[in-house]
Structures are given as structure tokens and as C-alpha cells.
């Protein structure tokens, strides 16, 4: 990139310098080529040299000024005896340079006009066969300019394509790395969750003197682990590189909310809930968001307010679904935190993202008594179809 000198690019300084040199040549040598009176010498010399100053800013305008002066000068001023050209050499060089710049930068229609007009000017004033030779020269200048222009454009497009390709390669590498991490996560978590299920189901048979309550607790642990395992498989199983396809299961929806509450109660949480309105009318996207938010809310309550009572209220309206999850303060004073305390995790932020994805809003706040409340409002939409609304009973 050209450097800047006192606010100007170095190329601009160079153009101004060349223009000054051309003018310093055209003015003193003008009496040797044309019969021009003294007061007009600087003006005619400027018409020959100054259009070069526009070669970068506006080459088409510079060419127009130079071509127009080339039409006027041979008519207004006689040539000196022994000089065969209608213009000074400086004027011819400037006109050719500006025509080359037009070929490099101007639209095709303007270039065609400049090329034809330049040839007509040379045909009109150049004697005999010189006009034909100069026309060929003008054509060569235009063709060379077009070749340079196409070369620059092709290299620029190639550079842009290489940049896009590099970005695409980087993006593909990131995606492949994410897929690898997801596959590893799936394999590790699925393995350990499977072991939990096996141990929970076989515990009553492997251990002596297992009470009925303990057996039921093991069964509840196994059911929860199986549900988590199936959800992990549904989300990450498709990323396996060996081409295996996990059996598809319906995505959780509003019909699974009560089942989640029942599972939490079986796991030992004190949960009370009320459901008002037709749950089957909740849209699939809305139901999935509510399901995930309820899962996270119950997990937070169990983690940060163990043994505290949790109250869930779900109201399904014709256009809006409202769900509130309120947990009382933990009776275990050693915990010292509520479900909404900042633990460095992303639970509440994730719930807000879920609500926004369903075009709703979520409000989470600590209560004066030490409890915590999560309230979500999401719009309702198309009802769950019979096919997609089947309960995903994995227990």
C-alpha cells in the first residue's frame, strides 16, 4: 500500500511531480513547435501538461480535457516550419497516458468512446499514413490497458477466493473438532450412564437385605439414568463417525412435563404442581423450551436448596403458556445458597436462551424469604400432533 506523506499518498506526490516536469518542458518548448504569442504560452503549455494531474483521481475527465485541447490547438495556432506533428510531444504523451488510465479504470462504454474519439482526432490531424499508424498505436495502448485490468481483477478475485477458502477450511476444522469432542462426550457419558443403569437395576439382586424402599429408590435411579441416556443419544448419537444410527425418539414436549415432575418426586424431592389448560395444545417448540427450563429449575433447586419444597404452576392459555417454579429456602442452613445464587454456571443464562428461542421471556429472582422463583412466559402456537405427542416413556 502506498505510504502517506503529509496527508497525501506517495503516488499523488509522484503524479504532481511528473505534471510539474511535463509543464516545465511544454511551456519553454512551445515556441519551437507552434506560433503562440508570449502571454498565451503558459496557458497552452498548461493545456498540454496539466490534464496528467487527473490520471488517478479522474482519468476520464483528464482525457476529455486533453482531447478537447488537441482539437483546438491545431486550429488556433499554426505550426512552426519544419515541425510535422499537430501537437507537442508532451501533449501526445499525456493523451496516451490518460487513454491507458481510462482502459484500466473506466467502464467499457466510456472506454469505447475515448478510443474512437482519440482515433478520429489522430486521423483528422496526422498527415497521410501516420494517422493509420497512430490509430494502431492507440488500439495497442487500449488492449494493453485491458489486459492489465483483467490481470489485476483476476488476481484480486483469486485472493478473495483464497481468503474465503481459508475461512471455510478454518470453519470446517472447528466443526470437525467440535464433532470429535461431541462424539467423545457421548461415548464417555453414555458408557458411565449405562453402568449406572446396570448397577441400579441389579443392586436388589446383588445385595442382601435390600428393603422395598431401597429397591424402589434403585429403580427410580435407573429410570432417571435411562432417560438421561436416551436424551444424550438423541442429541449426540448422530455425530458418531462409524455411521451407526441411534433409534429416533420423539423430542420432549409439554406432554412430558408432568412425567418429569413425577420423576423428581420419586427421586426424593418434595414437589407439588398444578396444570391448568389443555397441555396437548402446546406447540412442540414451546413444549421443548418449557421441558428444558423445568429440568434446569428442578436441578437448581435440588442442588442449591436440597430438601426444600418446590411448587410448580403451569397455565396453558389460548395464546400464552405461563410456568412458574418456586422453591422454598433450604432447611439445611449449612448449604447457605438458593437456587438462584451465582455459582459460576450457565443455568439461568441457558434458560433465558431457551425462552428467547421460543419467542418468550424468563424472569428469575431470589425471594425475600430465601427461596427462588423462575417464571417463564412463552407464546403458544400449533398444537402437538397425535404422532409427535406420544409420551416418551423410557422407564
TrEMBL record:
Q: Which Pfam families match?
A: HisKA_3
Q: Which SUPFAM superfamilies match?
A: ATPase domain of HSP90 chaperone/DNA topoisomerase II/histidine kinase (SSF55874)
- Tell me its EC number(s), please: 2.7.13.3
Residue ranges occupied by any Signal transduction histidine kinase subgroup 3 dimerisation and phosphoacceptor domain in the UniProt entry: 177-242
Segments traversing the membrane: 12-30, 36-54, 61-79, 85-103, 110-126, 132-152
**Keywords carried by this UniProt record:** ATP-binding, Kinase, Membrane, Nucleotide-binding, Phosphoprotein, Transferase, Transmembrane, Transmembrane helix, Two-component regulatory system
The record's PANTHER family line, in alphabetical order, gives: NITRATE/NITRITE SENSOR PROTEIN NARX-RELATED (PTHR24421), NITRATE_NITRITE SENSOR PROTEIN NARQ (PTHR24421:SF10)
What's the protein called, per UniProt?
A: histidine kinase
Amino acid at each position: 500500500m502506498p505510504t502517506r506523506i503529509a496527508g497525501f499518498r506517495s503516488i499523488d506526490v509522484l503524479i504532481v511531480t511528473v505534471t510539474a516536469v511535463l509543464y516545465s518542458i511544454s511551456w519553454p518548448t512551445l515556441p519551437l513547435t507552434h506560433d503562440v504569442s508570449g502571454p498565451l504560452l503558459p496557458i497552452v503549455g498548461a493545456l498540454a501538461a496539466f490534464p496528467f494531474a487527473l490520471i488517478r483521481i479522474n482519468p476520464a475527465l483528464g482525457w476529455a480535457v486533453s482531447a478537447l485541447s488537441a482539437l483546438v490547438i491545431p486550429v488556433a495556432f499554426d505550426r512552426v516550419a519544419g515541425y510535422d506533428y499537430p501537437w507537442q510531444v508532451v501533449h501526445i504523451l499525456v493523451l496516451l497516458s490518460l487513454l491507458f488510465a481510462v482502459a484500466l479504470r473506466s467502464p467499457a462504454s466510456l472506454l469505447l468512446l475515448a478510443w474512437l474519439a482519440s482515433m478520429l482526432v489522430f486521423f483528422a490531424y496526422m498527415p497521410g499514413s501516420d494517422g493509420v499508424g497512430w490509430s494502431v498505436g492507440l488500439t495497442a495502448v487500449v488492449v494493453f490497458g485491458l489486459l492489465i485490468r483483467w490481470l489485476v481483477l483476476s488476481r484480486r478475485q483469486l485472493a478473495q477466493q483464497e481468503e474465503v477458502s481459508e475461512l471455510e477450511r478454518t470453519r470446517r476444522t472447528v466443526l470437525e473438532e467440535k464433532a470429535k469432542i461431541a462424539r467423545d462426550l457421548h461415548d464417555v457419558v453414555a458408557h458411565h450412564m449405562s453402568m449406572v443403569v446396570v448397577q441400579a437395576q441389579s443392586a436388589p439382586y446383588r445385595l442382601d437385605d435390600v428393603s422395598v424402599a431401597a429397591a424402589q429408590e434403585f429403580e427410580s435411579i435407573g429410570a432417571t439414568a435411562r432417560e438421561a441416556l436416551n436424551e444424550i443419544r438423541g442429541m449426540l448419537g448422530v455425530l458418531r463417525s462409524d455411521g451407526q444410527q441411534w433409534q429416533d425418539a420423539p423430542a420432549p414436549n409439554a406432554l412430558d412435563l408432568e412425567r418429569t415432575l413425577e420423576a423428581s418426586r420419586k427421586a426424593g424431592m418434595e414437589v407439588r404442581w398444578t396444570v391448568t389448560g389443555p397441555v396437548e395444545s402446546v406447540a412442540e417448540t414451546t413444549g421443548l423450551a418449557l421441558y428444558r427450563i423445568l429440568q434446569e429449575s428442578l436441578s437448581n433447586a435440588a442442588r442449591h436448596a436440597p430438601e426444600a419444597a418446590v411448587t410448580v404452576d403451569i397455565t396453558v392459555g389460548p395464546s400464552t403458556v405461563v410456568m412458574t417454579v418456586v422453591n422454598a429456602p433450604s432447611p439445611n442452613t449449612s448449604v447457605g445458597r438458593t437456587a438462584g445464587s451465582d455459582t459460576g454456571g450457565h443455568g439461568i443464562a441457558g434458560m433465558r436462551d431457551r425462552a428467547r428461542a421460543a419467542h418468550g421471556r424468563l424472569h428469575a429472582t431470589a425471594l425475600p424469604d430465601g427461596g427462588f422463583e423462575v417464571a417463564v412466559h412463552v407464546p403458544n402456537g400449533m398444537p402437538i400432533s397425535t404422532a409427535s405427542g406420544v409420551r416418551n416413556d423410557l422407564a
